[in-house]
């Protein structure tokens, strides 16, 4: 009997150790609420909308301990709309992220699949639009810099270094997968972050070449690319500083597009020989109590374009204010207001204000207010 008890205990210990060495987690987030907009195409609107703040997702992620400080990791993530049950990305089961890789505690991580670029990874956490669970209404106009992760990189190989004295580096390359067209619809990016104590700094660069949005390339028609271009470049720097319950952030991004043509998901149906945006953002988060938080941001965006229809220098001012109350670590409710003023491009496709996630205003001003809730699992 004693031997049987010892054997059962050993078997239990082995099973527990094996379970501790590998894990698979089901996770997700649901965000829905009521949105009022003063002007969409000339009319006000009351709407029930999803993902006004955070992208709705469900996914699987896991790791396996391979020994010698080595781990196999994976993530499969789907985007969806709770209002109609549809997936965010047509004909795609895991349209947000899908990758597998190897992680070493000392040498870093290599992953392959559909992934975030360095702008999203490194500059996103500084912006109000992609801080933590995100804030889609607060994105820079047309998410021109992809800080709000409007698109992802297919066929990509990513390396993320371990953190050394607060510094971490990242590099990504997305293959075109085209025979005889290595440079057609490829992407690459790299970034650097420094985080120590209350200081967090970041810089990143992203380039898409010959973005024809082919189904097999680095970026596809399923992605929300507003300005498919022969060449798209995004660069930016930013940082934030934490003192007590407050976090203050500053961010600058510069987006350049050469020879754009409207794509399947473009909200601006006009081509440009050249187009660029400079986005200047200042934001603040303040924890009033452990359950109540306030956030706000001001963004000034300066643009310029030229093409067969002429040239102009559009500009946008945008102010976002938000209050959030957490019932628990999983569930919260929020209220948010966004005001945008657009000018400098009368008679062009950029004439009306255009808050992210909504339809364009018939005037240079647009106001949106939303109240909603989020829950995570």
Description:
The protein is mainly beta. The chain has a single domain, classed as Porin, CATH 2.40.160. The protein contains two helices and 18 strands. The protein has helices at residues 2-21, 118-123, and strands at residues 22-40, 43-50, 57-67, 70-79, 97-104, 108-115, 153-160, 167-174, 186-196, 199-209, 229-243, 246-260, 272-287, 292-307, 310-312, 315-326, 331-343, 365-376. Strands 1-3-4-5-6-7-8-9-10-11-12-13-14-16-17-18 form a 16-stranded antiparallel beta barrel. Strand 3 (57-67) and strand 4 form a beta hairpin. The two termini are 44 Å apart.
Strand-residue proportion = over 45%
Tell me, rounded to a whole number, the average pLDDT. Answer: 91
Query: Strand count, sense and closure of the main sheet?
Result: 16 strands, antiparallel, barrel
The CATH homologous superfamily is called Porin
Query: In the CATH hierarchy, what is the architecture at level 2?
Result: Beta Barrel
Distance between the termini: 44 Å
According to DSSP, the number of beta strands is: 18
Unreliable spans: 1-19
Q: What is the overall silhouette?
A: globular
Count of helical regions:
2
User: What is the count of distinct domains?
Assistant: 1
Structural class: mainly beta
Strand order of the largest sheet: 1-3-4-5-6-7-8-9-10-11-12-13-14-16-17-18
Percent of residues in helices comes to under 10%
Under CATH at level 1, the class stands as Mainly Beta
Radius of gyration, Cα only, in angstroms? 22 Å
- The CATH topology comes to Porin
GO cellular component, one term: cell outer membrane
Domain Porin: 8-340
Protein name: Putative porin
Signal peptide: 1-20
């Amino acid at each position: 009997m004693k031997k049987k008890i010892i054997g059962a205990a050993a078997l239990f210990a082995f099973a527990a150790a094996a379970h501790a060495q590998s894990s698979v987690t089901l996770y997700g987030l649901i965000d829905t609420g009521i949105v009022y907009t003063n002007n969409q195409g000339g009319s006000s609107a009351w709407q029930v909308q999803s993902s006004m703040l955070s992208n709705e997702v469900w996914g699987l992620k896991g790791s396996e301990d391979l020994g010698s400080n080595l781990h196999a990791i994976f993530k499969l993530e789907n985007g969806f709309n709770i209002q109609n049950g549809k997936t965010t990305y047509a004909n795609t089961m895991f349209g947000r992220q899908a990758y597998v890789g190897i992680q070493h505690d000392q040498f870093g991580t290599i992953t392959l699949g559909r992934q975030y670029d360095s702008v999203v990874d490194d500059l996103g956490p500084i912006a109000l639009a992609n801080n933590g669970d995100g804030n889609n209404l607060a994105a820079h106009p047309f998410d021109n810099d992809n800080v709000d992760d409007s698109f992802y990189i297919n066929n990509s190989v990513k390396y993320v270094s371990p953190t050394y004295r607060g510094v971490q580096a990242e590099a990504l390359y997305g293959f075109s997968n085209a025979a005889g067209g290595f440079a057609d619809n490829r992407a690459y990016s790299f970034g650097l972050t420094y985080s120590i104590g209350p200081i967090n700094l970041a810089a990143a660069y992203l380039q898409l070449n010959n973005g024809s949005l082919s189904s097999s390339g680095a970026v596809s028609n399923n992605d929300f690319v507003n300005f498919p271009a022969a060449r798209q470049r995004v660069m930016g720097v930013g940082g934030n500083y934490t003192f007590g319950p407050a976090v203050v952030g500053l961010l600058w991004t510069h987006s350049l597009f050469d020879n754009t043509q409207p794509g399947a998901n473009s909200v601006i149906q006009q081509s440009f020989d050249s187009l660029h945006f400079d986005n200047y953002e200042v934001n603040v988060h303040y924890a009033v109590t452990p359950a109540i938080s306030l956030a706000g941001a001001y963004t000034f965006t300066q643009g310029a374009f030229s093409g067969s229809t002429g040239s102009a220098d559009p500009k946008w001012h945008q102010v976002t204010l938000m209050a959030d109350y957490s019932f628990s670590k999983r569930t919260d409710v929020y209220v948010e207001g966004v005001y945008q003023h657009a000018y400098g491009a009368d008679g062009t496709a950029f004439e009306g204000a255009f808050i992210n996630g909504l339809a364009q205003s018939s005037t240079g001003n647009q106001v949106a207010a939303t109240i909603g809730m989020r829950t995570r699992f």
